[in-house]
Amino acid sequence: MSLPDDTLRKILVQIQQTAVQSQRALNLSVQQTTAKDRERRILQLTIDEISGIEGDVNLYKGVGKMFMMVPRKEMEKELKDQEKELADDIASLTKKSKYLEKQFNDAQAQLRDIVGIDGSTPDRHL
């Protein structure tokens, strides 16, 4: 039982669109993960620097075009909260990336199966 050329062409186009969309979303997810990981490393370095300061000192935090004095404990807590949030975002993006990569690989495998790259099926001109 063979499918008509129009039906086969529609199926191929749909699978190709899925593959392209998955690849684009995967690239975006990887870029977002890289950016968030960079932010997280900067936060970790900042936390390390603040932890190295001795005594109960006040620090300054940029707020718009001004700086606000913030107690060290409060600043450390804010930075650690931000770091945890970024770590959660990175974990979520990593899961999303794995899903998108699997979706892309599945679409590629379907295309190979339909087109018959392995040579087991005769070539069709689309």
From TrEMBL:
It comes from Mycena sanguinolenta. InterPro entries: PFD_beta-like, Prefoldin. SUPFAM superfamilies: Prefoldin (SSF46579). Belongs to the prefoldin subunit beta family. GO terms for cellular component: cytoplasm; prefoldin complex. Keywords: Chaperone, Coiled coil. This is Prefoldin. Residues 72-110 form a coiled coil. One of its GO terms (molecular function) is protein folding chaperone. It holds the Pfam family Prefoldin_2.
